[in-house]
């Protein structure tokens, strides 16, 4: 059930990324990293459809995170590109290439093998107090550094930097979501009494703003692969280090595990760089 929920959530995220990117890319440059960017975007029907899909996916993600391990759920999220690609092909009018289908097959096969070998087990529902401090400090320091360090840089480097920052913040958001969902499992009162519930709104909106800014400042071929990879990688690291989650692999089993993860990574990057996905830049925005 956890895997099914995560897959559906990933599909919704994939659809929303295409719908939201077409609008964010067309927004005036002076709105980048400003609340005015969100004000502009909420007036665009296609972006609202994308945010609707994002919210629905987030709801399913929260349920999946409460039921399963952070490492398992977040490792499935990149599969959302499997829906983003045909949707982008429809929007752009481009045909999917043989290389696109190969990348899709590599993503599915690599992820399936990795999950079977690793078989992540659930640990803690949230980090310790010290763990939270480390996680928030790391995310804030690195994200601010990336944003400030590329302030005077345009194009791909800026897009990658903002996408890394967005990926880190959204990875943090997944950890906060899991903690908040666990509190709500024990009652609405306990859910609203937890600080994680309110942090969820702040972290989530910050991640959303960074994601839209990354889409806006550069081509999606740079921002989307970066965002898609950074988010689950941080989540998996946090799951294994701060949530005491474990994997079944040991000894020589790590060799096929690493190989399958490398295949998955190649597939994700190749999908995100498909001409069908890149061509949405050329489409007129309504």
Please specify the SSE layout and strand pairing.
Elements: H1 2-26, H2 35-41, H3 45-67, H4 70-76, H5 81-92, H6 98-118, H7 129-149, H8 156-185, H9 188-193, H10 195-217, H11 220-241, H12 254-272, H13 275-278
Description:
The chain is mainly alpha-helical. The chain has one domain (2-282). Helix content is 77%, strand content 0%. It is built from 13 helices and no strands. The relative contact order is 0.18.
What's this entry about, in short?
With 286 residues, the protein is mainly alpha-helical. The chain contains 13 helices and no strands.
Oligomeric organization of the protein chains:
single chain
Strand content: under 5%
Computed CA radius of gyration, to the nearest angstrom: 18 Å
Tally of separate domains: 1
Q: What is the helix tally?
A: 13
- Measured between the Cα atoms of the first and last residue, the distance is 38 Å
From N to C, what is the helix and strand string? HHHHHHHHHHHHH
Total beta strand runs? 0
Major beta sheet summary:
none
Helicity, as a percent range: over 70%
Low confidence ranges: none
Mean pLDDT: 85
Q: In one word, what is the shape?
A: globular
Helical/strand content category: mainly alpha
Task: Name a few traits of the molecule.
single chain; 286 residues; mainly alpha; 13 helices; globular
């Amino acid at each position: 059930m956890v895997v099914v929920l995560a897959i559906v959530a990933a599909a919704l995220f994939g659809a929303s990324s295409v719908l939201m990117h077409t609008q964010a890319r067309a927004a005036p440059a002076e709105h980048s990293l400003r609340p005015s960017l969100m004000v502009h975007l909420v007036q665009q029907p296609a972006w609202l459809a994308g945010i609707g899909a994002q919210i629905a996916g987030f709801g399913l993600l929260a349920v999946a995170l409460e039921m399963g391990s952070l490492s398992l759920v977040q490792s499935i999220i990149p599969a959302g590109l499997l829906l983003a690609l045909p949707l982008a092909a429809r929007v752009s009018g481009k045909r999917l290439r043989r290389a696109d289908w190969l990348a899709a097959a590599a993503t599915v096969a690599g992820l399936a093998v990795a999950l079977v070998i690793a078989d992540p087990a659930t640990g803690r529902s949230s980090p310790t107090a010290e763990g939270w401090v480390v996680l928030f400090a790391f995310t804030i320091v690195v994200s601010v550094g990336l944003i400030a360090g590329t302030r005077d840089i345009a194009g791909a480097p800026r897009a990658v930097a903002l996408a890394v920052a967005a990926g880190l913040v959204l990875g943090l958001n997944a950890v906060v979501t899991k903690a908040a969902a666990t509190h709500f499992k024990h009652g609405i009162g306990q859910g609203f009494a937890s600080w994680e519930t309110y942090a969820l709104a702040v972290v989530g909106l910050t991640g959303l703003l960074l994601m839209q800014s990354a889409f806006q400042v550069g081509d999606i071929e740079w921002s989307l692969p970066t965002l898609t990879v950074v988010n689950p990688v941080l989540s998996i690291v946090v799951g294994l280090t701060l949530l005491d989650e474990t994997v079944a692999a040991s000894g020589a089993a790590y060799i096929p595990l690493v190989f399958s993860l490398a295949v998955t990574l190649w597939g994700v990057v190749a999908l995100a760089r498909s001409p069908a996905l890149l061509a949405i830049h050329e489409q007129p925005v309504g």
